C-alpha cells in the first residue's frame, strides 16, 4: 500500500509540472495525428476516445488523492498552531466534522468577528 501511495504522489508531482502538461498535450497530439492515416475511422475514434477517458480518470483521481493529502497536512499544521496559541481551541479538528457542523462554526465565527468590530 505504501508503494502505491508513493507512486500516486510521484505521479501527481510529475503531472503538476510543465513537463507533465507537455507530456499530456503531446500524447493527445500524437493520438490525433494517428487519426490521419487511419482516416479517422470509427475504430480509431473509439480507441482514442477510450484513451482520453481513461487518461482523464487517472489524472483526476491522482490529483484528488494528492490534494486530500495536502489538505490533511495543512489542517494538521493549523490545528497545531491553534493549540499552541492562547485563543479558543474549539475549532481544532473542525475538518473532521459533518458539513452542517462546519457551516455552524463558520457562522458563529463570523458573528464573533462582527461583534468585536
Structural commentary:
The chain is mostly helical and 117 residues long. It has a domain at 2-66. 79% of the residues lie in helices and 0% in strands. The protein has four helices and no strands. The chain has helices at residues 2-15, 18-34, 42-84, 99-116. The termini are far apart.
Could you list the spans in which at least 5 consecutive residues all have pLDDT below 50? none
Beta-strand proportion: under 5%
> Which structural category fits the helices and strands?
mainly alpha
> What composes the largest sheet?
none
Give me the number of helical elements.
Answer: 4
Mean pLDDT: 85
Radius of gyration: 23 Å
Tell me how many strands there are.
Answer: 0
| Share of helix, binned | over 70%
Order of helices and strands: HHHH
Distance between the termini: 50 Å
Mass-distribution shape? elongated
Structural features:
117 residues; mainly alpha; 4 helices; 79% helix; elongated
Brief summary of the model shown:
The chain is mainly alpha-helical.
Write the layout of secondary structure elements.
Layout (H helix, E strand, L loop, with lengths): L1 H14 L2 H17 L7 H43 L14 H18 L1
Amino acid at each position: 500500500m505504501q508503494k502505491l501511495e508513493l507512486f500516486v504522489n510521484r505521479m501527481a508531482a510529475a503531472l503538476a509540472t510543465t513537463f507533465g502538461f507537455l507530456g499530456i498535450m503531446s500524447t493527445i497530439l500524437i493520438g490525433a495525428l494517428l487519426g490521419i492515416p487511419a482516416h479517422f475511422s470509427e475504430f480509431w475514434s473509439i480507441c482514442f476516445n477510450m484513451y482520453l477517458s481513461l487518461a482523464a480518470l487517472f489524472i483526476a483521481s491522482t490529483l484528488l488523492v494528492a490534494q486530500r493529502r495536502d489538505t490533511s497536512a495543512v489542517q494538521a499544521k493549523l490545528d497545531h498552531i491553534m493549540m499552541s496559541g492562547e485563543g479558543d481551541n474549539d475549532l481544532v479538528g473542525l475538518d473532521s466534522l459533518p458539513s452542517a457542523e462546519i457551516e455552524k462554526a463558520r457562522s458563529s465565527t463570523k458573528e464573533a468577528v462582527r461583534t468585536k468590530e
